[in-house]
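>> received
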Amino acid sequence: MNLTEKMTEEINVFLKAVGEAELPVFQEKSEWNLLRKVKAAYTVRLLEKMPQYKTFPAEKIPDMFLQALGNREAELAAAKGNG
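>> returned
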């Protein structure tokens, strides 16, 4: 299990605990593609619940899961640049 899969699992545990529907489980061979799909799905869900965040730049939205996904995206981008 890669880090993005683990993060998705943790997000889904939280969503389930607060009575929300879980994010879809995407089947991707590439962690980069998986991360982008999970981040997009989570962002859509978050903006539905908190429409006032639509005025914020994505990196400034005060949400711990979205920030963690963004941090992972930066890590993968840095690793890709070093590869």
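>> The longest helix spans residues 31-49.
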